[in-house]
Amino acid sequence: MKIRLVLSTKSPKQGKPIELKLNVPPSKSIGFINFVNAAMQGDSPVTISFEKITKEARDRSKVQGEFRFFQGEATKKPEKK
């Protein structure tokens, strides 16, 4: 089983959908599944932020966001023609 995190939004200029797909390595899959299950069962929001990692330090970005997991309908990928 492979797990991929898919982030979706729309382009601010043209309004076209854009996606960022990040593979979850097999060594992190169980931890990722447990995190998502805990977030869905709890009532706390999930915070997303970014870190810039260099040899000297780790700097947290000012860009942050919050969201909640919920169970929705699965979307099917359109067939390629």
Describe this structure in words.
- The protein is 16% helix and 42% strand.
- With 81 residues, the chain is an alpha+beta fold.
- The strands form 2 sheets. The chain has a two-stranded antiparallel ribbon. A two-stranded antiparallel ribbon has the order 3-4.
- Strand 1 and strand 2 (17-24) form a beta hairpin.
- The longest helix has 13 residues, at 29-41.
Keywords for this structure?
extended; single chain; two-stranded antiparallel ribbon; two-stranded antiparallel sheet; 42% strand; 81 residues; alpha+beta
Task: Give a quick rundown of the structure.
16% of the residues lie in helices and 42% in strands. By secondary structure, it is of the alpha+beta class.
